Amino acid sequence: MEGDSICVKPPDGERQRIPAGRLESIVLFGNITVSSPFLAFCMEHGISVTFLSVYGRFLAGVHGKTHGNVLLRLAQYKATQDEATRSLVSHTIIAGKAANMREMLLRTSREHTDEMASTILRTATNEIASIARCMNAKMPVDVLRGYEGLMSRAYFSVFNYMIKANPEDFHFKSREKRPSPDYTNALLSFMYTLLSHDTRDALDSVGLDPQIGFLHTPRSGRASLALDIIEELRGPLCDRFVLSQINLRAITKDDFTGEPGEVRLKDKSRKKLLTAWQKRKTEEITHPFLNEKVPIGLIPHIQSRLLTMYLRGDLNAYIPFWWR
Fold it and tell me: What is the spatial distance between Cα 225 and Cα 214, in angstroms, rounded to a whole number?
């Protein structure tokens, strides 16, 4: 640390000086030690620090003072304790996720040069739509979770048909978490972790408690509300990014290490992926509700703000992010 800046010197690179005002968060991978003065500096400047294992598993997070006011959090706690409200918000989130999964499959099917693959993707799209029509906002949350699971299974059962480059190296059989059994699962888990981290910070910045969610049951050490919000964002933000990195051959099998059944990104590859992700977050997209262009990196903040407006009574319902 120097003044109001953080100094970073990679083992194989030049020393860099980054002003604290340009940082919102720091993510540390693997066995990295930081000092108490460093953490205090970050907290003073509103920079959250997240510790992840080499596999990308969340270990701990350090945050500064809580933002917002107590009345908003009381409204959040009241809403998450009301079964009808929990079902309503959970249904909205799952409906948004279903719409985005269908959009992912439809776009790829239209662009695919393989007619058989295109047909398979369209069939899965229809299956997801059929399951989504069976849901309603008055169903218990446990039942809605079941429908969400069925739609996710249909989506990931055809995910492999969206992989066009190096199909043998990145063959995808099913969605599995940690340890990641293959390269594609490792990429998805890594990106979901980053998105969860960004969303947790966004929720905290608007004054909501990231630990207390609607769809995901509260559990010690788990940011349940952040997991709620990223459900609708996984497809258009993470899955699309992962597929582009694979299909453009920006990421290859040489970017991974570990034994079969337990693979992870190499350190240099994580840096390369993070750089591409940060660049992607600066690109603009038209937000479907605001109907104006916004940087992709702001979407978690916008969705957090929309949830805040709903809890305060400024909106009649929470508006999910529906990719168009």
Answer: 7
Q: How far apart are CA 260 and CA 169, in angstroms?
A: 12
- As given in the structure block, the two tokens for residue 300 are 């978690």
**pLDDT bucket at 12, cuts 50 / 70 / 90:** low
CA end-to-end distance (rounded Å), the chain = 43
How far apart CA 167 and CA 162 sit, in angstroms, is: 10
Do 28 and 97 share a domain, yes or no? no
Question: In angstroms, what CA-CA distances link 166 with 120, 189, 242, 254?
Answer: 20, 20, 13, 12
Same domain, yes or no: 30 and 162: no
CA distance 77 to 92: 18
Is the same domain home to 193 and 44? no
Residues 211, 199: contact at Cβ < 8 Å?
no
Q: Which helix (H) or strand (E) holds 75?
A: helix 70-81
What's the pLDDT tens digit per position in 238-277? 999 999 999 999 999 999 998 878 899 998 999 899 999 9
Dump pLDDT digits (tens) for 168-178: 999 999 999 87
**DSSP 8-class letter at 296:** G
User: How is the chain split among helix, strand and coil, in percent rounded to 5?
Assistant: 55, 10, 35
Looking at the DSSP bridge assignments, the partners of residue 2 are 5
